Amino acid sequence: DAKTTQPPSMDCAEGRAANLPCNHSTISGNEYVYWYRQIHSQGPQYIIHGLKNNETNEMASLIITEDRKSSTLILPHATLRDTAVYYCIVRVANTGNQFYFGTGTSLTVIP
Amino acid sequence: EAQVTQNPRYLITVTGKKLTVTCSQNMNHEYMSWYRQDPGLGLRQIYYSMNVEVTDKGDVPEGYKVSRKEKRNFPLILESPSPNQTSLYFCASRRNGGANTEAFFGQGTRLTVV
């Protein structure tokens, strides 16, 4: 599975959009981009995933560049409860491979 | 409600005293796995199971055992715990195939071995 690079920490004002970047320059054509988050030592929580098209769900939007070498997770209106560590993971779907969690981005939403 | 349940949530034990951390899921998932999380090292996979009676080592299996006799349960066994196994443990489950292989995680077990 391709490695990912994320900034170690970010701040965001409450109510504003939080844009979390992820670089995955060695991603393969059949690898998906997944985002998970972990709130204060709880179990990681799935947010969203995509292959090459932009995706949106009730939690977030995922923007993947055309060359697929990077992506951005967007939380449109960040709240204090969005303070968490966010993990960007790339892996081939439909396999038994594990999810490799890196060290993620620690997002702090500021009141 | 779809969930992965781990027990206990907190455990303090002494070196060498065998213990088992239970994990159960109610989503009929084939794939289950155990992770440990340590400061600065992120989540590392200990063991995983693709289905009943099928288990395999992850990245850090030393000192651990698992079994998968039933689809819903995947216990983690520490035969002789040592202080370096003090950690936060997570069990996870998901379907085996398809792109939407969202993984569901338990709430974690914080283990301290003294």
Structural commentary:
The complex is a heterodimer of chains A (about 110) and B (about 110). Chain A is an all-beta fold. In chain A, about 0% of the residues lie in helices and about 45% in strands. Chain A contains no helices and 9 strands. Chain A has strands spanning about 10-15, 20-25, 30-40, 45-50, 55, 60-65, 70-75, 85-90, 105-110. In chain A, the strands form 2 sheets. Chain A has a 5-stranded mixed β-sheet with strand order 1-9-8-3-4, with no helix packed on it. The mean pLDDT of chain A is about 90. With about 110 residues, chain B is mainly beta. Chain B is built from no helices and 11 strands. In chain B, the strands form 2 sheets. In chain B, strands 2, 4, 5, 6, 9, 10 and 11 form a 7-stranded mixed β-sheet that branches. A 4-stranded antiparallel β-sheet of chain B has the order 1-3-8-7, with no helix packed on it. In chain B, about 35% of the residues are buried. At the A-B interface, strand 4 of A face strand 4, strand 5, strand 9 and strand 10 of B.
Write the topology of this structure.
The complex is a heterodimer of chains A (111) and B (114).
Chain A: E1 9-13, E2 18-23, E3 31-38, E4 45-50, E5 55-56, E6 61-64, E7 70-75, E8 84-92, E9 105-110
Parallel strand pairs in A: 1-9
Antiparallel strand pairs in A: 2-7, 3-4, 3-8, 5-6, 6-7, 8-9
Chain B: E1 4-7, E2 10-13, E3 19-25, E4 31-38, E5 42-51, E6 54-57, E7 65-66, E8 76-78, E9 87-94, E10 104-105, E11 109-113
Parallel strand pairs in B: 2-11
Antiparallel strand pairs in B: 1-3, 3-8, 4-5, 4-9, 5-6, 7-8, 9-10, 9-11
Which keywords apply here?
heterodimer, A: 111 residues, mainly beta, 4-stranded antiparallel beta sheet, 0% helix, globular, B: 114 residues, 11 strands
The count of helical stretches of chain B stands at: 0
Number of helices of chain A: 0
Sequence of secondary-structure elements of chain B: EEEEEEEEEEE
Main sheet summary of chain B: 7 strands, mixed
